[in-house]
Amino acid sequence: MILDLQGSVYLTTNAAGAFLTKLLTEERSEGELTDALIAEYRIDRETAERDVDAFVAQLKDQDLLA
Question: I need a surface site. Which of 2, 7, 34, 48 has the fewest CB within 10 A?
Fold first, then answer.
């Protein structure tokens, strides 16, 4: 779960989103996020890249990520 303090809105995530959120407490590239997702969930690179791209885009759309 992610809290948007400005809008007082909670955003829920699945397990992979929660995993990525924890990683984003430090600055990381999308490549690093993709590699971490592959290692954690043993998924193929194409799926991991698609998931990371969608997650990062959603955070940016909500102004939660610069």
Answer: 7
Q: What is the pTM of this model?
A: 0.81
- 2 beta partners: 11
The radius of gyration of the chain's CA atoms, rounded to the nearest angstrom, is 12
Cα separation of 39 and 12, whole Å? 23
Cα–Cα distance, 3 to 30 (Å, whole number): 22
The residues facing 44 across adjacent strands are none
Neighbours of 52 (CB within 10 A): 24
Q: What pairs with residue 11 in β-bridges? A: 2
